[in-house]
TrEMBL record:
Residues that span the membrane, as ranges: 56-82, 103-121, 133-151, 160-178, 190-211, 231-250, 256-276
UniProtKB keywords: Membrane, Transmembrane, Transmembrane helix
Chain coiled-coil ranges: none
NCBIfam families given in the database record: DMT_1 (NF038012)
Protein name: DMT family transporter
Lineage, highest ranks first: Bacteria, Bacillati, Actinomycetota, Actinomycetes, Mycobacteriales
Leader sequence residues: none
Length: 278
């Protein structure tokens, strides 16, 4: 069953869930007493565990959204989690949202709306052949392993930046594999999940992504790695959506100028908002 409206609604619900969980966890860790381990203090709070559970809920909502519509619709909407984080954070902190936050949040909203409306994404193949996956996976492994090894020889700031890019790219693969898994489930149910390689590839990619992400966080300040993650993920996901899933934007002539401006604005807004949220 395909419904672009439901895909957008579930993607928005996922983005909002991600934002709430981020604010809750950040708030608890921030309020940890001086001299104590923020993580250990947070883990004693039931609210922190509730915030952690939102990651699972958000991912389930994302997969449901992908079951209703193409990746090229769901992925831009998920970026809205950055925008949702700002008002939720302001409520928790009892402050007003700044003009800068309002401007870039509005820019992100307009950009995502333009990408969906002007791009008019259409779905591709529900179950692409393995022969199409192999080149994409092979190139990804070679490039990302090389980048990670190069990052390990750099100073902390550059290492955090490069590993942030690697993390975002891996989660771009996770997004595409999630779409494939959602389509397999819609078509074949739980038996299909057990008998198709995509679910095992998704598990491996998500595990590697989490590991590389932690390395990026440990390498240096969050402001160096987080924007890189947020930039790389949609770019890689869009590229793989085109090359592997055969999803397409229906853009012609001068519409490419508007679409390109919207995409650039989405990236710029993502970078700014990810820095504000740190």
């Amino acid at each position: 069953m395909h419904s672009y409206l439901l895909a957008v609604l579930f993607a928005l619900a996922s983005a909002l869930t991600i934002a709430w969980g981020t604010v809750v966890r950040h708030r608890i860790v921030e309020n940890a007493p001086a001299g104590s381990s923020p993580i250990l203090v947070a883990m004693r709070r039931p609210l922190w565990w509730a915030g952690m559970s939102t990651a699972i809920i958000a991912y389930v909502l994302q997969v449901v959204a992908l079951g209703f519509g193409p990746l090229l619709i769901v992925q831009p909407v998920l970026v809205m989690s950055l925008m949702f984080t700002l008002p939720l954070s302001a409520v928790y902190e009892g402050r007003r949202i700044s003009r800068r936050e309002t401007f870039w949040s509005a820019a992100l909203t307009v950009a995502v709306t333009a990408i969906v409306l002007v791009g008019r994404p259409v779905g591709g193949e529900d179950h692409p052949p393995l022969e199409r996956w192999i080149p994409a996976l092979t190139v990804g492994v070679i490039v990302l392993v090389a980048m990670d090894r190069f990052a390990r020889r750099q100073i902390r700031r550059e290492r955090a930046l490069i590993q942030g890019l690697v993390t975002g790219a891996v989660f771009g693969y996770v997004a595409v594999l999630s779409k494939a898994v959602a389509d397999v489930f819609v078509e074949s149910g739980f038996i299909g999940l057990l008998t198709n390689w995509e679910v095992y590839g998704l598990t491996l990619a998500a595990t590697l992504g989490t590991w590389v992400q932690q390395n990026a966080f440990n390498a240096g300040a969050l402001r160096n790695s987080l924007p890189a993650m947020k930039i790389a993920e949609p770019i890689v996901a869009f590229t793989l959506g085109y090359l592997v899933l055969f999803e397409r934007f229906q853009v012609d002539g001068w519409e490419w100028l508007l679409f390109g401006a919207a995409f650039a604005t989405m990236i710029a807004s993502t970078v700014v908002l990810s820095r504000i949220n740190i």
